[in-house]
Amino acid sequence: MQQYMTLNFVPLLPWQALAVLGMLAFVLFVLALLRRARGTWWRGLALALVFLVLSNPSVMQEQREAIKDTVLIVTDNTPSEKVGQRPALVAGAMDNIRKQLEALPDVEPVYLTVEAQEDETRLWSAMREAVLEQEENALAGVILVTDGQVHDAPAAPLEDERLKNIPIHTVYTGGKDEKDISVIVTQAPRYALTGDTVTVTVRIDAQGYPKGQTEKLRLDVMQDGDPVGVFPVVIGEERKLSFKMEHAGDTVLSFTVPRLEGELTAANNTAFSIIRAVRDRLRVLLVSGKPHAGERTWRNLLNSDPAVDLVHFTILRSPQALDPTPSHELSLIAFPTHELFQRKIKNFDLIVFDRYHLQGILQGFYMRNIREYVKNGGALLMASGDEYGGESSLYQTGVRDILPARPLGGTIENGFIPEKTELGNVHPVTERLTDKQQAWGRWFRQVKAEVAPTSRVLMTGAEKYPLLVLDKAEKGRVAWLASDHTWLWARGLEHGGPQKELLRRLVHWLMKEPELEENRLVVSVNGFDLTVRRRALLDVDENIDIAMFTPEQEQKTLTLRREDMRRWQRGDVSVDQYGLYRFEDPTSGQKAFAVVGRIDVPEMQQVIATNEKLAPLTAETGGGEVWYREAGQGFELRHGAGFAKLKYYGDDWIAVKKNEAYRVTGLKSFPLLPPFGAMLVIALVMMMAWYREGRSGRRQS
User: Fold this and answer.
1) Out of 76, 309, 569, 576, which could bridge 534 as a Cys pair, Cβ 3.0 to 4.6 Å?
2) What is the pTM of this model?
3) Closest CA to 385 of 352, 415, 356, 351
C-alpha cells in the first residue's frame, strides 16, 4: 500500500467565469501600472489571492494498491485441434506458457478455453468478450493458442480501440508444411421421392500438396453402407453422381478418398449427404375374390388415406358359374389381368388378396410373376377365409414358395378372441396394441394352418392356431391373416378392437418402415456422446459386439448390454471428432449412422495450420507469432516496459506490457486556502494597499 499527494483545483465558479474575471482584473492591473497609481502591486496581489481562493486549490492524498498485469490466454479446443499430433502440441504449448507466467511475479494469467460453436471456431469473439471483462488498465496482452483456422476473424484494420492498445500474440499448434485432402459435398437435395434418381455434386480439395502431385484420386462411394462404385476424380473439379432412392426414410451417401502419405488427418477424407426419401403415394392393388362383409372395410380403410392410390377389383363370378349371363355384361370393364400382373405389376408397392381363390382368371404364369415381384422387393398381404384350405387355395399355385403358412384343411367357425403371442408382445407391429385383450371383440372364423420355420407368429386365434403370420421372401415381405373377420373390430362388435391400428402397422412393416424393423439398430447423438440401442426379439443375447467405424474409417468394437429386462441392448460411447460414424450389427446385418456436427462442417473442411487469418490482426497490435512445433521450449515470454512501439516480439520471444496500473483504496482531500485564513490574508493585503496610497497622498500635500 502506497500514498501519493496530488494538487487538485475544484473552482467555486465555472472556469469560464473565472477566466473572464481574470481577464478583467489583468486589464485593470495593467491600466493601473500605466498610470503609475500607488498601491497597484498590493491591489494586484489581492486580486490574485481572490482568484486563487475562487479556484479552490486542495491537496488530494491517495492510497494506492498495485494491480498485477493480466495476461489472457485463449486456447482453441475445437475438433480441428484434435487431429494428428495437435493434442500433444497444445498441451506442450500451454505447459510452457503456464510455467513462464508463474515465474513472473507481477503477472496474473487468465485462461479461457474455446469450444466449437455452431460447428465453427469462433475464437475472436470469445477473446473479445473476455477482454471486455478485464480491468482496462490491467490487461497487458493476449496469447492465442490455435491452429489459425478461425471462422470469425474480423477484417483488418481493427475497429476496436481497446484491442489495438494491447499486444495480441499467436502460438500456432501446427506446422508450416502440413498437407491435407478434404472431400466436400457442394450440392445435394435434402428430400426426394422414393424411386427417383437424385444427383449429388462432390469436390475434392488439396491443401499443402505441390501442384500436379494429386491431380487424380480415387473416390469410393457408398449408399447406406453398401459399396456403389469407385470413381476417378480430379482435384478442384466437381464430380456429379447419380443415386436411386431405394426406400423411404433417410438414405446415407458417403464419399471417401483413401488417405495419402503424409496427410494430416483422414477425418475429412469422407464427406456424406443424408437424403430423406418420402413416398409420393402408396400404390395398392386390392383383389377381392368374392363379395363379403369385410370387403367394404378394406376399401374404406385404404381410401381413407389420401396418400394411397387404390386399384380395387372384385371378382363377382367365376367362368365356371352356372349363369347364362355373358361375362362382358356382368362387369363394367374387363378384368385387366395381363395389364396388372404382367406389364405393370412392378408399379405397385403392395398387393392385397382378400379371400381370393382360384377361379381360372389368374393363370399360373401370373402367379409366378407375383412370386418374383415379392422376391425382388415387393409386398404381399393376404386375408383368408375358408377358401384357403380348399383345392382352389392360392397355396396350390406358384406363390406357395413365399407363403408363410401351409393349410391343414378345414376352418374353425367358433368365436374366439385374438391374442398376442410372446413374440407379438415384443414385435414392433403388435407390441403397442392395447393389452386389454379381454375388451377385444370376438372373431368367428379361423383357418387351420401350420407355419413355415422362418415365419413369425404374432397373434393366435381359435385353438391356438396361428392368426397373424409374417415372413420375408428374399428382398420382399409377406403377411398372412388366417381370418377374414377383421371387419368385426371395425364395426364395434363386442367393443371391437384396434383393427385400423393393426392393419396400418402391418402395411408399414410390409413397406419396410425403419421404426417397425424387428432387429432395429438406433443411434442417438447428444453433442459428442453417442448412445447405440439395438432392438432384438426373443433370441436376444445378454451382450453383443457390433462394429463401429469412425470418420477416419478406423474400426472399433462396441459392446451392447441388455437394457433392464426389455428386449433392447444399449451401448454408450464418447467421441472427439466431427463426421459420420457407422455401426454394423454382424448378426442381423442392420446398419445405423450417426452424424456428429453438421453435414457440411466448416471446422473440418480446412484443418491445416495457417496464419493468413490472424497475422494481419496480431501485427496491427504489435503482437508476434510462434510456430510451436518448430520453436518448442525455445520461445521466451517477457514482461516489461521500454519495448519499441507496436513491436512486442522478437525472433525467439514475445512480450506483454508493463502497465504499472493501480487501484485507489483510500482518498483524503485537504484545502490549501481555508476560507477564514484566506479572507484574513486578503484583508491585510488590501490594508497595505490603502496604507501605501495614504502615505503617497500625504507626501504630495
Assistant:
1) 569
2) 0.73
3) 356
